[in-house]
Design a protein that fits this description.
The complex is a heterodimer of chains A (347) and B (297). Chain A is α/β, with parallel strands linked by helices and 347 residues long. Chain A has one domain: 3-Layer(aba) Sandwich (Rossmann fold). Chain A is 29% helix and 21% strand. In chain A, a hairpin with a 6-residue loop joins strand 11 and strand 12. In chain A, helix 3 packs across helix 4 and helix 3 packs parallel to helix 6. Chain A is globular, with a radius of gyration of 21 Å. The chains are: A alpha/beta (347), B mainly alpha (297). The interface between A and B is large, with 47 and 29 residues.
Chain lengths: 347, 297
């Protein structure tokens, strides 16, 4: 594991181990077709993704739909079993050193659809108390914990504990989902588009709640979103994904101020600005991402890239360090020796 | 429990406002459905009549009288006439409710239990297990239900038990198919994913999160099968494969009275009318339950 490229960000303390280490994780979904369910193709949803999540930080993951953000999230809690790759939590590798149950006690997830993620037949209290009960907590204690958590996410237990999901609003439901995810006292919470379906005003409240909870409970977040503004607000570091691969990863300021990957620049360029002086002038991305069943050769972005040269369709770029420490991008431009005419360009 | 535990026992939870649960709402909505309530009333009356048959029936269901054969409806002492052996029709119809309801309801309930178990297991486990189980079920499902029931009870020999058994086997495939499709849908919903992510074992997830959401629809479907079961059971008796004479059972009565259809058509039609009324009642109740359960959030 340590032989791989060190992609950890600048360590905050002397020798800090990442809370979560993900190495070369791969998930391909076979496409079944034909009379006997033969495999007719493979969707390369996540294709060799590496990243670390440091304790106490928020790692934002951005990308277009279908780039593998949600699959990555589901792989982290083993809701989907990876085809290859390693996940280590707190220095312990899943499998040899860490059981799945232990991983799941420490890593919890909040889903996008607040309604679908609550069982319509259970009261909010029962939904929150379910996981602790499964892990051996006594019924009464679990209910007490559920009520405490409701209070913690800003829902008065007396009014909400005995309610059903359809009786409350989307924002309140998402608060319940957050409470449910916190019920096992996890160290890492994966927020998979957790605020994307909410109204802007409610979204802001939930984001603030998430920030408060993070500080109060010493949490680490993986924050997945397609909303670049929200990611910028929430994250310490950002990972940009494109077609199942990492395009760029680095500190949030570096990514937003000096994006090194043309895809990141295009994404940021597509961000509407409130300032008329900062009109989007750069080339905005056109077309849909290529089909992940048959991804382009070499750099997967070369079909849509303004800087594409011959080398890009032949040679696959790897993550390479940029100007800021901990800022890496997977692009031949600015990677010395890559064979691209702009390879020596200071990124 | 030691004294220390008692001292440290935490204070009871503060009372919280409780919303009526889903089933309380369903019952409330069902109780407002006049048609369903009428159907329920008919069913309750029939069940009560069946249970208390010895107390309410005016005569002995087996006592025949050659002199009073095929008396028309309204004959003094025979309010609904007499059958081809001079037995009181009203009495036999009341007693007939026992076997007919038994033959109609029991197979469906047993099949509901077995079929739901098979279907939920196949739907939740999925993959190759699902394929093997459901394709096997499909083999049975491919037979027309009447033919399958006749073939099975023909092979098992006449009698109530073989009739019940063959009807149960007939109803397992359709219930299992419904259970499988509902479970497959529920399994993909995020709250099941969230439960899996919380590390709960599969059995607990099924018990807490799946069953509560699938049993309702399966049950509604099963209640709609009760009328089918009654008609099939009557059909088996009619063919001489279910209940044997002289037991009073509506299907069998229909069979034995068919020779009298020209002599006493109204009397001969009575068992059929009972089968019709009971089936309709179960179907209407099932429809009412279906719409009562369709609560839009």
């Amino acid at each position: 594991m340590s032989a791989l490229v060190d992609i950890a960000p600048a360590p905050r303390t002397a020798v800090e181990r990442p809370l979560l280490e993900v190495r070369q994780i791969v998930k391909h979904f076979p496409l079944k077709g034909g009379l006997f369910g033969r495999t007719t193709g493979t969707v390369r949803a996540v294709d060799g993704v590496d990243f670390d999540v440091m304790k106490g930080e928020t790692l934002g993951i951005v990308g277009e739909s279908g780039c593998g953000k949600s699959t990555t999230a589901r792989l982290l809690v083993d809701l989907i079993t990876p085809d290859a790759g390693e996940i280590a939590f707190d220095g312990r590798r899943l499998g040899p050193d860490l059981t799945l149950t232990e991983l799941r006690r420490n890593v919890q997830m909040v889903f996008q659809d607040s309604y679908a993620s609550l069982n319509p037949r259970l009261t909010l209290e029962d939904s929150i108390a379910f996981a602790p009960t499964v892990h051996g907590m006594k019924d009464l204690d679990a209910r007490r914990l559920a009520q405490e958590l409701l209070a913690k996410v800003g829902l008065e237990p007396k009014r909400f504990a005995g309610r059903y999901p359809h009786e409350i609003s989307g924002g309140q439901r998402q608060r319940v989902n957050i409470a449910r995810a916190l019920a096992l006292s996890p160290k890492l919470v994966i927020l998979d588009e957790a605020v994307s379906a909410l109204d802007k005003s409610v979204e802001a409240q939930v984001l603030n709640l998430l920030m408060d909870l993070k500080a109060e409970l010493d949490l680490t977040y993986v924050f997945i979103s397609h909303d670049l503004n929200v990611v910028r607000f929430m994250s310490d570091r950002v990972m940009v994904m494109y077609l199942g691969e990492v395009a760029e990863i680095g500190p949030v300021e570096a990514i937003y101020a000096q994006p090194a990957h043309p895809y990141t620049r295009a994404l940021l360029g597509s961000m509407p600005s409130m300032d008329p002086e900062k009109r989007t002038e750069e080339v905005v991305l056109t077309g849909d991402p290529p089909n992940p069943i048959n991804p382009p050769s070499g750099c997967r972005f070369h079909t849509r890239c303004a800087f594409a040269e011959e080398v890009c369709s032949v040679k696959k770029p790897s993550l390479h360090v940029r100007a800021t420490r901990g800022h890496l991008a997977s692009c031949h431009v600015g990677t010395p020796g890559s064979g691209h005419s702009l390879s020596e360009l200071p990124a | 429990m030691t004294a220390m535990d008692l001292i440290r026992a935490p204070a009871p939870l503060a009372p919280v406002e409780r919303s009526p649960g889903y089933w309380a709402l369903v019952l409330k909505r069902l109780s407002r459905d006049k048609v369903a309530m009428l159907a329920l009333l008919v069913i309750v009356l029939l069940v009560l009549a069946a249970i208390f048959a010895p107390y309410i029936a005016p005569a002995d269901p087996y006592k025949s009288s050659m002199l009073r054969r095929l008396r028309p409806i309204g004959t003094p002492g025979y309010p609904l006439g007499a059958d081809e052996l001079g037995r009181d029709m009203l009495t036999r119809l009341i007693y007939g409710a026992r076997l007919s309801l038994l033959m109609g309801i029991t197979p469906v309930f047993i099949a509901f239990a077995i079929g739901s178990t098979i279907g939920v297991a196949a739907g939740y486990i999925g993959g190759a297990f699902n394929t093997v189980v459901m394709r096997t079920i499909d083999v049975f499902y491919a037979f027309p239900s009447v033919l399958l029931a006749i073939a099975l009870s023909g092979a098992l020999g006449a009698g109530i038990f073989s009739g019940l058994l063959s009807l149960t086997i007939v109803f397992i495939p359709p219930i299992a198919r419904i259970a499988e499709s509902v479970t497959t849908q529920v399994r993909k919903i995020d709250y099941v994913e969230a439960a899996r992510a919380s590390g709960a074992p599969g059995f607990t997830i099924v018990r807490v999160h799946v069953l509560g959401n699938v049993l309702g629809p399966i049950f509604v479907y099963a209640t709609s099968l009760i009328s089918v079961s009654m008609i099939l059971a009557s059909g088996l008796s009619f063919l001489g494969l279910g209940v044997k004479p002289p037991e009073p059972e509506w299907g069998l009565m229909l069979n034995t009275l068919r020779n009298a259809i020209y002599v006493a058509p109204w009397v001969a039609a009575l068992p059929g009318a009972m089968i019709f009324m009971t089936s309709i009642a179960f179907n209407l109740l099932s429809d009412g339950l279906r719409s009562a359960m369709d609560i839009k959030a």
